[in-house]
Design goal:
Chains A, B, C: Its cofactor is Fe cation. Chains A, B, C: It comes from Sphingomonas populi. The structure is a homotrimer of 413-residue chains. The first copy, chain A, has 413 residues and is an alpha+beta fold. In chain A, 30% of the residues lie in helices and 24% in strands. Chain A has 2 domains: 44-145, Rieske [2Fe-2S] iron-sulphur domain (Rieske Iron-sulfur Protein, 3-layer Sandwich); 160-373, Naphthalene 1,2-dioxygenase Alpha Subunit, Chain A, domain 1, CATH 3.90.380. The first copy, chain A, has a 7-stranded antiparallel beta sheet with strand order 1-9-8-4-3-2-5, with no helix packed on it. In chain A, strands 10-16-15-14-13-12-11 form a 7-stranded antiparallel beta sheet, sandwiched between helices. In chain A, a hairpin with a 2-residue loop joins β3 (66-74) and β4. In chain A, α5 (191-198) runs antiparallel to α11. Chain A is globular. The interface between A and B is medium-sized, with 26 and 26 residues.
Chain lengths: 413, 413, 413
């Protein structure tokens, strides 16, 4: 673990508006601190309820490098456990499945879906079987989305945030979706570089020709051009008038959050240029979802906490998880949702296309960024006006780290 | 190296009858301590004399991550050396072979089979060639088995143990065997997890259906069932009466050993259910070995020190080496012996079958155990009544580590 | 970083005339010290001007584990930069190419060939774009050879050495050569083991039969045999008489160098046995280079600093770079040059043959040397009379390290 005083010095030396000092992107000790003190306060989007179709359904997933088992114990009762048997410590589940009990493959110890040890005959005398239940992981189920967090006293209550986000999630019909596809993009870079990239579109014109072609907003998020900005403002204003019907909504909420309060945002804008959805040519790619009776050509962007995102078009939704693995490894995982009643023979390629091609490009540019930062010549550089959200994220990160380090040191955070 | 006081605290915190605390299974510093202080006192079964058929035969093997050369210098004269030239430090031997001298491939320095430098012409003036002999490794040759140990003043004398084990080794004709097959099972787990698994059969019913089908003893070692225990006791009693002839023997010896005394055991029981040998259907798979004039259907299990084992049926023998590689890597190496006069065209698959299928399964369950133990949720769990030998091993390990740490600290061990 | 006192003790314990203690070949902390304090004073041969044929040509290479961009900014103006954008730290160039500006693939920031930031429109107010130029790497261009060094106040001036070496480089026509082939030999060994091997031919007879067959000097550098030494002395004397024409030269210069003065050498001898060049049968393999009007059968060996070498025959030149990667990894990179006007369809295999076959063998023997040194049994061994240059190199290394450690400790070096 990095020594407190040195870490504090590094945090205080950091200039606002500039990229982070090198150790924040490379150092395994700083990553260990982040994992133990910061990630333990983060809720992560882990699964969709469609992955647990019935009581006894269970899935094996990774949360902050911990293997966890998420199990459906009842209709609205989803539980999660560390994937560790309490007898000798073996992995309990090797694969997704369905069973009335969770049975360890080593010595056949079995556990109820609610975590209690079921097979008590071999427990030595003097040991209370009640002490041998599975180790729980925190779960929050909302509108079909399953969020998990490592157990911690300092975990923020997610309910207030989802009270705000609920209407937008319901509008998009996320609860009654099914999973169309999932793809993982392992990326050799620190998780903060992945987020820094996600929070700005300054790189879009240069690095994402397909994305730039689809999305009207790049005219203001990807460049500074007064004429184009005016055109885009006109297009938004026109669009906002067209969506004030029963099926549309015009929402913008944001809470910067803190260590103790879930950070989130939801914003909505037209895709633009007459496009109905986020496809190659703008034409529909699946059945309309949720409360949409017709295409309005909007995209709703959600952020849940610091590491989970969604992009919702009228007929499909893309969930994004940013999973830190180590100081220099991060997984980006994308999951595409469509309506439960969408054609089972649906071609998923057009649904995946935009975010897949963009994420493949992002992986490359993020890895190039990480490679450059490993150089002894790397120095923090200045964020430009088009990288404001990135600078804000880095500033929040710095403030939260500072509070955690001071907290450790017994200094008022 | 782990700091003495912290290690002592960890050892003293450990509860008897429970699995070890996490660091004992993961920590490279603890492994380094084990390697330097504990493994240096262990004899390891390294080879069979059939691998060195003539004077000048030499083989290259790994002992505790050290490459060593074992060479036959005479009829009963087996020597072993670190595989390091004393000139520039190059590897001396790259492969098994036979030659009158050991010649370094770098600058052609040559050494006698007894270790002395042969080529002295280039040795600079003022340096005594006698100081440039090969670095010896300790060797103990007994009944055709070659045991090696890293040089250490604290190495226990193996002779007393082998005085006890000798009759059983001779009965099984191990000295005049030949090697039928060898297979390595690299396992991503701490060596103690491999031994903990080897010392109990509680997992057999669940994890080893083939082994359970072959071996009658699983009725008492793999479950607690009074009726089955009685049946098995009857079968043993009946079998013991049948083997009091010239060819059978009924032996049970065990020395728990210590840091200074070789731990060993030999036990013997019927395979059961009318089986002649450890094959799929119980039918013979090779020529009878040693003093056996007829099949008696028994299996003799040997343990030599802490890391070497043998399972001897009437017509073949399986040697087992447990080779620690790092804190989280261990090799299990199995060698199958048959009588020297067994048919050269013998099909070895039926001979390997039982231990091969069982060891493949063991590798998997041990690796699952290791994976679970890496979790932050892992806590020591209780050993049951069917894991008594495993608990005993862990207790011995703890006592020996405690003595070594106290020894280092100058505290009475 | 290794603690100064411990390092000093290790250096002072080292016996002259014996191989280094184990940590010098294995320890990553010592390598880190070497990299930060010693390699930062070394010039490394990086490229030939033929790789940068025109203004705007740029190439991406590795110097001491740093990716650098070498660019031709004008006729005799070669620049080098760390391959790091000053905006967010991304890799600037991914591949060799030619362009009027160096443009970052992330956000399209562009830089002049002379390093200044070109695209200044997005630089935030209050930040001077002049502070955002590329980070320079030192370059020395001489006779078409491009040497680079990491920026350091303590870098020795290469000019005096090249004043001496210039005539020999010109005689061999190195400036107007083109690259015939390049090959990298990644070697799992410390860089000093690679150099120790390069500085002696004691191993040649045993390890390099092809090299020994070609090169007459092995009669004295690879063995101690009075009769052969006399024959070889006669052959040299005879050869020296034949080359006193306009096209030949007879040069021998050497400066042991120091931390502050470039170490170099140039020596010249006949290949011997009537051979015209360093080919399988001694027959020419390309067009004569430089000032040679006819074959004189000589080889000129150059050493530039500690890590770069060249072997020049009459019709081709082999450049050698020794690139340390980590404590136990080194790349040997060989580049074969021929005259710019040599037949474009030239078969390069006969040109590469001798040094390729020899370097493949060297990689193997050096890796075997490194493997043996990893053993706990490794002890320093004595260099023989045929390893004098190796002993000298090790002695220089020890003296330079000693000076650097004392310098750090504030003790007079």
């Amino acid at each position: 673990m990095i020594e407190g005083t040195a870490f504090l010095e590094l945090l205080e030396r950091q200039r606002a508006g500039w990229t982070l000092e090198q150790p924040f992107y490379l150092d395994e000790d700083i990553f260990a601190f982040e994992r133990d003190r910061w990630m333990s306060r983060q809720w992560m989007l882990m699964a969709h309820i469609a992955e647990l179709p019935a009581k006894g359904s269970h899935i094996v997933r990774d949360l902050f490098n911990e293997s966890i088992v998420i199990a459906r114990a009842g209709d609205d009762d989803v539980r999660a456990y560390f994937n560790v048997c309490t007898h000798r410590g073996s992995r309990l589940c090797k694969a997704d499945g369905r069973a009335p009990l969770l049975v360890c493959p080593y010595h056949a110890w079995s556990f109820k879906l609610t975590g209690e040890l079921q097979s008590r005959a071999d427990v030595p005398d003097g040991i209370d079987p009640a002490d041998l239940g599975l180790h729980p992981v925190s779960v929050h189920l909302v509108e079909g989305l399953i969020f998990c967090a490592l157990p911690s006293d300092a975990l923020p209550d997610p309910a207030p945030a989802f009270d705000v986000l609920g209407p937008a999630l319901r509008q998009h019909g996320i609860k009654r979706a099914r999973i169309a596809a999932r793809k993982s993009y392992p990326t050799n870079a620190n998780w903060k570089l992945v987020l820094e990239n996600a929070f700005e579109c300054y790189h879009c014109r240069n690095a994402h020709p397909e994305y730039t072609n689809v999305n009207g907003h790049v005219q203001v998020t990807g460049m500074r051009d007064a004429a184009k900005a005016e055109t885009w403002a006109d297009e938004i204003a026109h669009w906002q008038k067209t969506i004030t019907g029963a099926d549309g909504f015009d929402m913008k909420h944001r809470d910067p959050g803190s260590l103790d309060r879930l950070s989130y945002s939801v914003t909505r804008h037209p895709i633009g240029r007459g496009r109905a959805t986020l496809s190659r040519d703008g034409a529909p790619v699946s059945k309309l979802m949720g409360a949409f009776a017709d295409y309005d050509g909007g995209e709703t962007q959600f952020r849940f906490g610091r590491l989970s995102f969604a992009s919702a078009a009228n007929d499909h939704v893309t969930l994004v998880q940013i999973q830190p693995r180590s100081a220099q490894q991060t997984d980006m995982v994308l999951t595409w949702l469509v309506d439960a009643d969408a054609d089972p023979a649906l071609d998923v390629e057009p649904i995946q296309w935009m975010w897949d091609v963009t994420t493949v490009q992002d992986k490359r540019i993020i890895e190039d960024n990480a490679a450059g930062i490993r150089s002894r010549a790397y120095r923090p550089g200045p964020y430009t006006a088009l990288e404001g959200e990135t600078a804000t994220f880095v500033q929040s990160y710095r403030a939260e780290m500072h509070a955690l380090v001071c907290d450790d040191a017994g200094v008022g955070g």
